[in-house]
Amino acid sequence: MKRIKKVSVQYNKFGFPNLKFKKDALVTYRCIGENDIEIVGNKKGLKLLAKALLGVAEYPKADGYHIHLDDLYQINNENKRFIITKSEKENLLS
Predict the structure, then answer these.
(1) Under 8 Å between Cβ of 73 and 25
(2) What pLDDT tens digit does each residue of the chain (94 aa) get?
(3) What are the DSSP calls for the chain, one per residue?
(4) Could you tell me if residue 3 is left (phi over 0), alpha (psi between -120 and 50 degrees) or otherwise beta?
């Protein structure tokens, strides 16, 4: 059976994604070796992350827009920084 779930993001008057905090939303990550990252979260945390990713991707400015999920939503207990940044450059990390 194929399930389709739509994710929608609302934007405020300044064009920023309006992500509603869900109580008990948790998401964190860990680096495994040099080339792997594992994102771990509960259902509410992963849905918040999905909306944040979509919100940043659809933001009208081309480069540099970013959000700090950890500062805005306190979503992890390990005090790790969780930043999502938009870049349209070919070399994303330059």
Answers:
(1) yes
(2) 788 888 788 888 877 788 777 778 888 888 898 889 898 889 988 888 888 888 888 887 767 778 877 666 666 667 777 788 888 888 877 6
(3) ---------EE-TTS-EEPPP-TT--EEEEEETTTEEEEEE-HHHHHHHHHHHHHHHH-SS-S--EEEHHHHH---SS----EEE----SSTT-
(4) beta
Asked whether 27 and 71 are in contact (CB, 8 A), the reply is no
Cβ-proximal residues to 57 (8 Å cutoff; 6+ apart), any chain: 86
Q: Which residue, chain included where needed, has tokens 């059976």?
A: 1
- Amino acid identity of residue 77, one-letter, is N
What's at 29, amino acid-wise?
Y
